[in-house]
């Protein structure tokens, strides 16, 4: 570990979460660059111990029930003792003190809340943490674009989080505009776009683009309404009406499965659309190598990591103009952009892809060049290291995108 780099504690809700490989990649890259990285989480999956990160178990502050888990006790004794000793001086009850003990046990130079919603959950404790650590928070999508619309109290909480935080990480310029609208000071904002280990996908570029059989279409994402898979299924149904044979596979799991299965049945697409469930990285890579194109029909995104992986694999992409996708996909150059909800445009462009292996090859090659030049994880890690170092080396100065 480098003596010149600050220590970091990443605060997440689950680690490692299958749908959040971008966090594991980031933390691994920081560790490999010489940073001391600890992970604080309310939930650790069985594989977490194999990853080699020091771990701190948190209790979910908004949980209706607080119970000390046996696996968590080892990380808590000193913190619990310290908090209990202060108990008579504080108005909070025992439940609050037990819940917040692990947050108060964080000893690090920088505490990075990887989602703004987590920081909002621990809002009352952030000022105390801020006495000993710089606070960073990431803004990635729904928590900033959707939650404040559903819950006005979330907007108020985010305004306070942004006031306390030293660094506000946004995954796109579009997200920067969103958080500025929520009161985030422009001088605290760092735009650092998602990135991937490009070399792990570049071997998939040597595919047979002119194969026999149906047009092979892939989507990857949680089965959640914001992902727009009902739109993509309608687009595929329209392709079938044009007489285009298509094999569309959706990799992911979530609360919309029953609805989507019903849609597939009602539209008569059982032989064209498959919900293949949640898959690990090896299976995802296998699907990327199988596919002719990737479709992102989302209503809301920061920047989709699935799209970045597809581009690195040399796949042409059709994406909606949601969130920051236009900052990565250049319409007609390295992919195709359509308006959110425009199933007709999705169908039209997918039909063009199905009809032309040359078009798929041209856009896929351009996507691969974009990945090589701009999307590798090394760029993202380097920007984070610079930002973190500036936070700790220059008191009162915050990094921003240059």
Radius of gyration: 22 Å
SS elements, strand count:
13
Given as residue ranges, the uncertain stretches (5+ residues, pLDDT < 50) are: 62-101, 396-402
Structural class assignment: alpha/beta
Globally, the shape reads: globular
List the strand order in the largest sheet. Answer: 3-2-1-4-5-6-7
Mean pLDDT metric = 88
Separation, N- and C-terminal Cα atoms = 28 Å
List the helices and strands and how they pair.
Layout: E1 8-12, H1 21-32, E2 37-41, E3 55-57, H2 77-85, H3 94-104, E4 110-113, H4 116-121, H5 126-130, E5 134-139, H6 142-145, H7 147-150, H8 152-164, E6 167-170, H9 173-181, E7 189-191, E8 215-220, H10 229-241, E9 246-251, H11 257-266, E10 273-277, H12 281-290, E11 293-296, H13 305-312, E12 317-320, E13 336-338, H14 343-355, H15 357-374, H16 377-393
Parallel strand pairs: 1-2, 1-4, 2-3, 4-5, 5-6, 6-7, 8-9, 8-11, 9-10, 11-12, 12-13
Helix pairs in contact: 1-16, 2-3, 10-14, 13-15
């Amino acid at each position: 570990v480098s003596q010149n780099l600050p220590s970091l504690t990443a605060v997440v809700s689950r680690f490692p979460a299958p749908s959040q490989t971008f966090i594991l990649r980031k933390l691994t890259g920081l560790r490999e660059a010489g940073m001391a990285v600890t992970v604080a989480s309310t939930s650790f999956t069985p594989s977490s111990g194999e990853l080699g990160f020091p771990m701190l178990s948190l209790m979910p502050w908004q949980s209706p029930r607080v119970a000390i888990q046996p696996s968590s006790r080892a990380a808590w004794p000193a913190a619990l003792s310290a908090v209990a000793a202060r108990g008579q001086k504080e108005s909070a009850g025992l439940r609050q003190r037990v819940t917040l003990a692990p947050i108060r046990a964080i000893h690090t130079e920088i505490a990075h809340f990887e989602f703004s919603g987590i920081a909002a959950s621990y809002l009352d404790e952030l000022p105390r943490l801020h006495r000993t650590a710089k606070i960073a928070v990431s803004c990635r999508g729904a928590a900033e674009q959707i939650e404040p619309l559903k819950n006005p109290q979330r907007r108020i909480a985010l305004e306070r989080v942004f006031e306390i935080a030293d660094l506000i990480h946004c995954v796109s310029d579009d997200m920067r505009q969103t958080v500025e609208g929520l009161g985030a000071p422009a001088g605290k904002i760092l735009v650092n776009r998602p990135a991937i280990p490009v070399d792990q996908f570049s071997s998939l570029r040597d595919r047979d683009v002119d194969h026999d059989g149906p047009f092979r279409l892939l989507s990857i994402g949680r089965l959640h309404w914001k992902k727009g898979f009902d739109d993509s299924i309608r687009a595929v149904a329209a392709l079938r009406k044009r007489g285009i044979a298509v094999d569309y596979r959706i990799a992911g799991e979530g609360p919309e499965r029953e609805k989507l299965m019903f849609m597939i049945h009602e539209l008569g697409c059982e032989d064209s659309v498959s919900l293949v469930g949640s898959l690990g990285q090896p299976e995802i890579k296998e699907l990327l190598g199988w596919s002719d194109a990737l479709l992102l029909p989302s209503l809301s995104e920061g920047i989709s990591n699935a799209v970045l992986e597809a581009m690195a694999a040399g796949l042409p992409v059709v994406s909606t103009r949601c969130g920051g996708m236009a900052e990565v996909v250049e319409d007609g150059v390295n992919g195709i952009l359509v308006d959110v909800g425009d199933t007709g445009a999705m169908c039209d462009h997918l039909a063009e892809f199905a009809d032309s292996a040359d078009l798929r090859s041209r856009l896929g090659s351009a996507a691969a060049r974009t990945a090589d030049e701009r999307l590798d994880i090394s760029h993202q890690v380097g920007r984070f290291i610079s930002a973190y170092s500036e936070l700790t080396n220059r008191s009162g100065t915050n990094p921003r995108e240059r």
